[in-house]
Design goal:
The chain is of the alpha/beta class. The chain has six helices and twelve strands. Strands 2-1-3-4-12-11-10 form a seven-stranded mixed sheet. The chain has a three-stranded mixed sheet with strand order 5-6-9.
């Protein structure tokens, strides 16, 4: 395909940083705030922020139903942090009225790594990459469980026991990470997503 056009959901979060990272990964990047803008892109990034706020704004801006429809139709989407929560079929520790776009057969726990002052960075081995990526975790979720169709791409050791915490997953055209690669200057995860978008268009 020609250079893919990838939107960044511009309701809250690291919109500018994702636009920069996507451009560095050889995509045409543009903000998406309205349904007609969503209709014009080949793929979408859902950035971090506050998942309940993003959910409410998506409904307010008339984006929630079109997002669900396009995800069901195969739109490639990459969600980081709150974006991961938005792609989860099930949420733990969410608000009772919290809505998600869904699409990934996983259960995600909100704010699982702690509060803002417990934010941290760590090197994370990532499936298919020769060198670890730097994960920036800010009030980040983790994945409690996944269905049979979900590929686990990255894990970090649990602080409270021998088990690892799942922090990156893929299901079909959907990709999600607990962490923020857009904040590191390392664009390999965005490049991975761009390759997903190109493959989906073939």
């Amino acid at each position: 395909m020609s250079t893919p056009t990838i939107g960044v959901l511009a309701l809250q979060g690291d919109v500018r940083e994702h636009l920069v990272a996507l451009a560095a990964a050889d995509a045409l990047a543009r903000p998406v705030r309205r349904p007609e803008e969503l209709a014009e892109v080949d793929a979408l990034v859902m950035p971090g922020g506050e998942s309940t706020t993003i959910s409410k704004l998506a409904v307010l801006f008339g984006l929630m139903d079109p997002l669900r429809e396009r995800v069901r139709a195969g739109l490639p989407v990459y969600g980081t942090c709150a974006g991961m929560i938005m792609l989860a079929d099930k949420i733990l520790d969410g608000r009772d009225d919290q809505e998600t776009v869904g699409g990934i057969d996983m259960t995600v726990r909100r704010n699982a790594f702690g509060r803002q002052n417990e934010s941290f960075e760590t090197a994370i081995p990532f499936e298919g990459m020769a060198e670890p990526v730097t994960g920036v975790f800010i009030r980040a979720p983790w994945v409690e469980s996944v269905g049979a169709g979900v590929e686990v791409l990255a894990e970090v050791p649990a602080a409270d026991g021998p088990d690892a915490r799942i922090v990156a997953v893929r299901q079909g055209n959907l990709l999600a990470t607990s962490f923020h690669p857009e904040l590191t200057g390392d664009h390999r995860v965005h490049e991975y997503f761009v390759r997903m978008v190109e493959a989906a268009a073939r």
